[in-house]
């Protein structure tokens, strides 16, 4: 089974020009710990609640002027929509990631996949092992 068979196509994302305040409110209201940053449907970064605090609030007195581009992580962990579930689950466990953006081979953001999505279709043993590995960190 492929990632595209279980991923959520409804991806919340922000633009690189979004202000930190807009992003913080967006994340609070959506109960999100991270959000993809996209430009022209291309995944260009990720922003986490930690990025907002460490790179944003603690990094400057000019917080009101900061945007997603200023604090996002440009080195992005992602998977492809045509990857096998087992491979992605193993990678998520190795990298200790609970949610992963899904891109097309052209790097267009097409979805997001979570451990929960994978758990529905993958074997319980594999999912349990991955969750146990992630929880150890």
Description:
The chain is α+β, with helices and mostly antiparallel strands and 137 residues long. The chain has one domain: CBS-domain (Roll), CATH 3.10.580.10. Helices cover 39% and strands 19% of the residues. The protein contains six helices and five strands. Strands 3-4-5 form a three-stranded mixed sheet. Helix 5 packs antiparallel against helix 6. The radius of gyration is 15 Å and the shape is elongated.
Strand and helix layout:
Layout (H helix, E strand, L loop, with lengths): L19 H11 L3 E6 L2 E7 H9 L10 H4 L7 E2 L4 H11 L3 E5 L5 E6 H7 L2 H12 L2
Parallel strand pairs: 3-4
Antiparallel strand pairs: 1-2, 4-5
- Structural category is alpha+beta
Ranges where pLDDT stays below 50 over 5 or more residues in a row are none
State the CATH superfamily name: CBS-domain
Specify Rg, calculated over alpha carbons.
Answer: 15 Å
Distance between the termini: 28 Å
Summarize the biggest pleated sheet: 3 strands, mixed
Could you give a quick summary of the protein structure above?
It is built from six helices and five strands; from the N terminus they run H-E-E-H-H-E-H-E-E-H-H. It has 137 residues and is an alpha+beta fold.
Question: Which key terms come to mind for this protein?
Answer:
alpha+beta, two-stranded antiparallel sheet, 6 helices, three-stranded mixed sheet, single chain, CBS-domain, about 140 residues
């Amino acid at each position: 089974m492929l990632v595209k068979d279980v991923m959520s196509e409804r991806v919340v994302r922000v633009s690189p020009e979004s202000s930190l305040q807009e992003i913080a409110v967006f994340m609070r209201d959506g109960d999100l710990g991270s959000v993809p940053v996209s430009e022209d449907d291309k995944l260009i970064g990720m922003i986490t609640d930690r990025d907002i605090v460490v790179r944003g609030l603690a990094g400057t007195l000019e917080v009101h002027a900061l945007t997603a581009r200023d604090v996002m992580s440009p080195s992005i962990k992602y998977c492809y929509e045509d990857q096998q579930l087992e491979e992605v689950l193993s990678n998520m466990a190795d990298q200790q990631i609970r949610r992963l953006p899904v891109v097309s081979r052209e790097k267009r953001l097409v979805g997001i996949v979570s451990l929960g999505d994978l758990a529905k279709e993958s074997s319980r043993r594999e999912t349990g092992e991955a969750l146990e590995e992630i929880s150890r960190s």
